[in-house]
Amino acid sequence: MTIKAVRGTRDLLPPETALWNRVEQTAREVFALYNFAEIRTPIFEDTQLFARGVGEATDIVSKEMYTWEDRARAQSEKAQSLTLRPENTAGVVRAYIEHKLWERPGLQKLYYIGPQFRRERPQKGRYRQFYQIGAEVIGPPAAGSESPARDAEVLEMLVTLLNRLSIKDWTLELNSVGSPSSRQVFNQALQKALSGAVERMCVDCQRRAVTNPLRVFDCKVPEDQPIINTLPRISGFLDEADRKHFVEVQAILKATGVPFIINDRLVRGLDYYTRTAFEFTQGSLGAQNAILGGGRYDGLSEALGGPRAPGIGFAIGEDRFVMALAAGSETGIPDSAAQAYIAPLGEGMNVPAAKLAREMRSAGVQVQLGDESFRLKKSFETAEKLGIGKVVIVGENEVASDQFAVKDLKSGEQQKVDRAQLRTWINYFVWLFQERDSSGSATPASYGLPSPTITGCRKDKFVCFVIR
Ligand code: HAM
Question: Per-residue pLDDT averaged across 327-333, rounded?
Answer without folding.
Answer: 60
